[in-house]
Write a structure and sequence with these properties.
The chain is built from seven helices and nine strands, in the order βββαβαααβαααββββ. The protein is α/β, with parallel strands linked by helices. A five-stranded mixed beta sheet has the order 3-2-1-4-5. Strands 6-7 form a two-stranded antiparallel ribbon. Strand 1 and strand 2 form a beta hairpin. The longest helix is centred in the C-terminal third of the chain and has 17 residues.
Length: 225
């Protein structure tokens, strides 16, 4: 189990999908499973997270900002330089006119961040505030660091489930990959909220991607050199 460094940590992790898939969210309290929610309504999810769950920290798997020049955002390029495969966010204008709505899920993410702004504004810097906030994370990169420097997208269900189990997070039976990813985001939020060292890629204009620096090895958090 993860060693708790503060008395109470209530967090939410959110996996963002398109209009058909919707949002999947998982809440943790003191690092243990608390509740989950699936909805297509960003405002409903924001209210559930803030008032229903009382989350202190919310981690979201969706870009918190758009590219400003049509290239990958600095955060995405920095992850790629680490050898971690990563998508490239487009400009908002490109996302709006894409003929197959390939970036529709990113627009849904934008909607969610806007809904969270009143209670959990997105943290755009490497330093976290003391009160409520949200931040962008990336399950594949988080898996890479939590596994000590390796992750396979082809084995994501297995690897991410193993990480959750090692952290003492027990999801309901038959959890789908979207719920698993939401739980992994929640684990990242819990680690950040309890003071485990994290890495922040990117900068304030185009947003930061936050992942834990620690590795879960045999159920113990240990720093990765």
């Amino acid at each position: 189990m993860i060693e708790k460094t503060i008395p109470i940590s209530t967090v939410v992790g959110i996996d963002v999908g398109g209009s058909r898939k919707g949002f999947h969210a998982v809440a943790l309290k003191n690092g243990c499973y608390l509740d989950q929610k699936k909805t297509s309504d960003a405002r409903e999810l924001a209210a559930w997270s803030a008032h229903g769950i009382g989350a202190q920290v919310i981690a979201v798997d969706a870009p918190c900002r758009w590219s400003v020049d049509g290239r990958a955002r600095p955060a995405e390029r920095e992850l790629m330089q680490e050898g971690i495969s990563c998508f490239s966010s487009p400009t908002r204008a490109k996302a709006l006119v894409h003929r197959t709505d390939n970036f529709g899920w990113m627009l849904r993410g934008e909607e969610l961040y806007q809904a969270l702004e009143a209670t959990h504004p997105v943290c755009r810097e490497s330093l976290f505030p003391d009160d409520r906030y949200s931040f962008e994370t990336y399950p594949h990169a988080a898996t890479w660091y939590l596994r000590g420097g390796n992750a396979s997208a082809k084995r994501k269900r297995i690897e991410r489930t193993e990480l959750l189990r090692a952290a003492g997070i027990q999801l309901p039976a038959r959890a789908g990959i979207d719920t698993i990813d939401a739980a992994l985001c929640a684990l990242v939020a819990h680690l950040v909220a309890t003071g485990v060292e994290s890495l922040s890629f990117g900068e304030s204009q185009t947003g930061c991607i936050v992942v834990p620096r620690a590795a879960i090895v045999k159920g113990v958090i240990g720093s990765k050199s």
